[in-house]
Amino acid sequence: MEINKSGATFSSIVGIGAKIKKMMDVTGKEYLFLNRGINAVCPIDLTEVIKLIDFNSTQIQVYPPNKGMPELREAINQEYFDGASNLDNIAIVPGGMSAIDVVVQILNLDTVYFNKFFWGSYQKLCTIRGLKTDTFENLLDFVNTVKNIRKSETENSSKIAVLLCDPNNPVGNKLNDEAMLNHIKELSEMGVIVIFDSPYRRLFYDFNDTLFQKLLPFKNLIITESFSKTMGLSGQRIAFIHSVDKAFNDELNIRLLYAFNGINAFAQELVLKLLTTLEGKKAVSDFKKKTVEDITKNIQYLQNKKLLYQKLYENTKPVGIFVVVNVSEEKLLENNIGSVGMGYFTNDKSAEIIKTSRICVSVPHQKFILFFDKLMN
Q: Is 52 exposed, middle or buried, given 0-12, 13-18 or 19+ CB atoms closer than 10 A?
């Protein structure tokens, strides 16, 4: 049969995971899966939360509303925006990757830019949707690049978007919030669409975080936010999109209907309970506390052992669930540690970059040091 090929390649990260599982089966040895992008310090304990859900309810057993349950969208409005947004601006989608995919489908763009070190799926999604991509060294440089582009145009004709991941995947560095907001304001005023993808931030912050509220004035900004990392719910595939642009939201509503016809009702009900009940808030708080505690210890261990690729952290300190180490993917694998070579996360294929790897530091601390102590010996 004839097919329309996407032009994208299969995820190398998924392939590495399959390779390690096969090696485990063959050798019988244990491996530390730091190639994955999930929080594995501990699972979120849903024991008390599940008791609050009526699986026989109409809410669970029939098609959910197209843009998501109103109660959940209002809970998101309260949690992230302190009630300052509204339900029309919020839509529930099946996971963060789907969120980004539907956004780039809707927008009329020429080129999507992202950081020099980027999650490979950003580029692959753009390839599938027929969009050109480019990268920038840092956000200030990108702002200046856009200024030069706009100066050379008689009107803002270049259809540009920038995808900001903060804290960054794969590096784990964090931009200064105020500087980032100023840059977003400049870009928005120059007609650049900003897609703000921050699935790791709320693991380290709570509802007192005001960044999302400060993003509300920018019409040319779209937020894609996932509950996978902040609540340990990767398996539930649930996220949301926020935009204050009516035309975008109207088209999003149509796309959601024909792409998904409603998002998993159980997952929505579960997140609603986690956001709004005492039992749910405690489960999330306990999960975050233990996860952040071990992430912090693991990063400190790497710093003490001089294993961090320090060049990437000269003006910032690692935050998030990933860091880059100055050990190759092959060397780590020889020591039963899974990772992903940084060559998969950048267009820079220099010998120096090829010798570094991205690892997930969201695993139990004692297990982490057990494997890395063997590497150091």
A: middle
Amino acid at 129: R
Q: Which of 13-27, 29-43, 221-235 shows the lowest mean pLDDT across its residues?
A: 13-27
Average pLDDT of the chain, as a whole number: 93
- Whose tokens are 């709004």? That residue is 276
Measured CA to CA in angstroms, residue 80 lies from 14, 74, 83, 209, 240 at distances of 31, 10, 8, 8, 11
> Is-contact 335 320, C-beta < 8 A?
no
Strands (E), 151-248: 160-165, 193-197, 221-226, 239-243
Count of CB atoms within 10 A of residue 183's CB?
20
CA 363, CA 33: separation in Å to the nearest integer? 9
Task: State the Cα–Cα distance between residues 143 and 129, nearest whole angstrom.
Answer: 25
Strand order in the sheet with 221-226: 90-93, 239-243, 221-226, 193-197, 160-165, 111-115, 132-136
Alpha helix ranges (H) inside the chain: 12-27, 47-50, 58-61, 70-81, 96-106, 120-128, 139-151, 177-189, 201-204, 211-214, 246-259, 265-276, 278-304, 329-334, 351-354, 365-376
36 has a pLDDT exceeding 80: yes
What are the tens digits of pLDDT across the range 185-228? 999 999 999 999 999 999 998 888 999 999 999 999 999 999 99
d(CA 100, CA 97): 5
Quote the pTM value: 0.94
**Count of Cβ atoms closer than 10 Å to residue 151 Cβ:** 7
